[in-house]
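Fold Annotation — chain and its backbone

Fields — amino acid sequence, structure tokens

___
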Amino acid sequence: MTKKFAFLFPGQGAQSIEMGKDFYDNYTEAREIFQLGDELLARSLSKVIFEGPGDLLTKTANSQTGIYLMSMAVLRVLQSQFPELKPSVCAGLSLGEYTAFTASDRIPFETCLPLVQARADAMNEACEASKGMMAVILGLSAEETEQMVGELNLPNDLWAANFNCPGQTVISGTEKGVEAGSTAAKARGAKRVLPLKVHGAFHSGLMRAAEEVMGEKIQEIAIKDSPVDLVMNVPGGYVSDADQMRLYLTKQITSPVRWEQGIRAMMPHVECFIEIGPGRTLAGMNKQTGVVVPTITVNKVEDLEKIAKELS
């Protein structure tokens, strides 16, 4: 019987200088993805990824596209080295959802990369137009955070943004809203509240302008049928209808990311999770969520040995 694998893809914040450089240096497939990316974008994004500086890579317009590019380069190497390794389901955190669409053969790389760049540009503009921030709350449940945001009743200033794993949620909004949320979270017994190093208030109402821009672009994209399942952020579960996929991909920009719920939906059906792309945040969240099957992170060439062992 074939083992059921889930491919997971990270989102913004996972970027680091030189991510994917060892794949670029050692594998033609990775080199081709980085080079094609530079061609499609008509700029040397690979130079920014490999050389920085850090503040340039962290800019929304570079980090989102850079993470997608690096994740796809690693995926292409996995596909060439282990042709028998097929996902039964794909999911991605926020930006990573676009990588999941490509990995499940629903939107080709050549179509998806410009779409990711359009998303990054639209969100960047929204950040500039409406200054905002985000903070991670440690020690409150998803229900407690949602209840707190509801009770504070600041509909234009504060939103629940991410439900990452048990005891880790994120709020998003204006400085006034996030400060009020941080104070209220501590009063409710949160262990810590930490501001995130992001450009603006992602997954909040302050991103509505970006959602409108992307809604039009996403409607024009053809989404192919695929035997690979897809778990999406907005519902926190499996989605099979292409029109619903377009709706959720659009709504994702202003809606909370229900990552923990998505992982829980996959847990009964998956025998191994593979995190593909920079960082190891998703593996950490799986541990916190109580995933008992293996989670393998692949972001360095030496990580391919773990896959070889898992498949042997």
Observations:
- The chain has two domains: 5-128+205-311, 131-195.
- The domain at 131-195 is CATH 3.30.70.250 (Alpha-Beta Plaits).
